[in-house]
Structures are given as structure tokens and as C-alpha cells.
Amino acid sequence: MYQQQTCDDGVYDAGFEGIANDLYEKGYAISDLALPRALAEQLRLQVINSGSDKFHRAGIGREKHHAINDSVRTDEICWITGNSCAGQAWLDWTTNLKDYLNRRLILGLFSFESHFAHYGPGDYYKMHLDAFKGEANRVLTLVAYLNPDWKPEYGGQLVIQTGKGEQNKRFVFPTFARLVVFLSEDFPHEVLPATRDRYSIAGWFRLNTSQSNRVDPAT
Ligand code: OGA
Ligand code: MN
């Protein structure tokens, strides 16, 4: 399935290998090959067919610190469960990716959570980090895009700050089946407003314990 083949130390997948290499070298990866287009299409249909009642305004912070704050983000989200075929296929695929990265980079990734996000025209998510140093919670962020025929003039770029200054900003359009992966504590990022509806999935791998999350190659 999905052009994977077995070899001695598990499943080899060219898309997963590219992500592992980029994560090791740069701490982030942008791939148009890793996410199977058939899976992206299943997820796209799921998100456009699920009624808007399934979505709720995204907040910031957890539990009692949870707050809706228009100055930070204005998108709406829907958590992904295994209750739909598309949701289960996504969870199976992200488990394969997790196992692959754990084998290649000894990241110690354990659990995974993810949600669909809908940004209507004009919606945004200001510069933020998905995890804070020392809290050892979210280790690796995954973002997948579900927008066929996205044109640059629609805007809606993900901007990743890969170092200091304007010259170290990476601008990523949310084109169909594109996958972005980065170390959650290390890369501030933001979502620029678009002129169209913009659909994505954001997910996070967490550690089991509060151990080091340093990238540590297997070889
Ligand atoms: C997030 C996020 C990016 C995107 O939900 O934390 O940064 O491009 N999403 O949807
Ligand atoms: Mn984020």
C-alpha cells in the first residue's frame, strides 16, 4: 500500500525517508510526495462534507487556560477521531510515519492528536510556537493541506521562521497533499489570511515521558 516496500529494518518509504533526512539536517521538512494523494482526497471529502456544526472556534491554551482570542487566531477546528474511514486511514498513516521517524531518528514519539482546520477568507493565525521549551509535550508538528488548485494570488501561506530575520522566513502555500513537519519547540510560524476557504490538518506527536527530544540519528 502507498508504494511502501519492506526491507530488513521495517518499511521503506521514499517520502518518509525524505522527511527524516530533512528533519535531521534542518529540523523541518516540506514534502509533496509523502502524503498519498488518495488519502488527501479522502480527508478533503470528509472535511468539506462534515457540517459546519462539527467545527468550533479554536482557542489558545489548554483546559482552564483555554480562551478564544481573536487577536491570535480566527480559524475553526474539528478534532480527528477514528470514527470515520478517512479519519482512521489518517491515524493509520500517521502511525506509520511515527514508527518510521522513531526508527530513523530515535525521537521517542508516542501519542498523536490532530484536527481539521478551516480558515475562511480573511482568517489568520498569528506567529506562535506549538510547544514551549521544557514542557516536553508536543515534539513534532505535522501540517497537511487539502486545497486542490490553490493559486498564489489566494494567499494563505504558512510562514515558518527558520532562523532570525526576514531572510529566514519560508513561505509555504497550502497546496493539495503537501505535508509540512517541524520540531514543535523550535519553529515559530504563522498563517497569513487567504481570499478563499483554506483547509488543513494540524497534528502533534507527543512524548510518553518528559525525556530529551533531541534529534539523535540511528546510525
Ligand atoms: C496550528 C497551525 C498551520 C496551518 O494549527 O497550530 O499552525 O497552516 N496551523 O494550518
Ligand atoms: Mn501552529
Please provide a brief summary of the model:
The protein is an alpha+beta fold and about 220 residues long.
Key features of this structure:
21% helix; 3 helices; four-stranded antiparallel β-sheet; binds N-oxalylglycine; alpha+beta; binds manganese (II) ion; 219 residues
Description:
- With 219 residues, this protein is an alpha+beta fold.
- It contains 3 helices and 13 strands; from the N terminus they run ββαβαββαββββββββ.
- The protein has helices spanning 14-26, 37-49, 85-105, and strands at 5-7, 10-12, 28-31, 56-57, 76-79, 109-119, 125-128, 138-145, 158-161, 169-172, 179-183, 189-191, 198-207.
- It has a 7-stranded antiparallel sheet, with helices on one face. A 4-stranded antiparallel sheet has the order 7-12-9-10, with no helix packed on it.
- Strand 1 (5-7) and strand 2 form a beta hairpin.
- The protein starts with a strand and ends in a 12-residue tail after the last strand.
- Manganese (II) ion (MN) is lined by residues 128, 130, 189.
Write the layout of secondary structure elements.
Layout: E1 5-7, E2 10-12, H1 14-26, E3 28-31, H2 37-49, E4 56-57, E5 76-79, H3 85-105, E6 109-119, E7 125-128, E8 138-145, E9 158-161, E10 169-172, E11 179-183, E12 189-191, E13 198-207
Antiparallel strand pairs: 1-2, 3-11, 4-5, 5-6, 6-13, 7-12, 8-11, 8-13, 9-10, 9-12
Helix pairs in contact: 1-3, 2-3
The structure holds N-oxalylglycine and manganese (II) ion (MN).
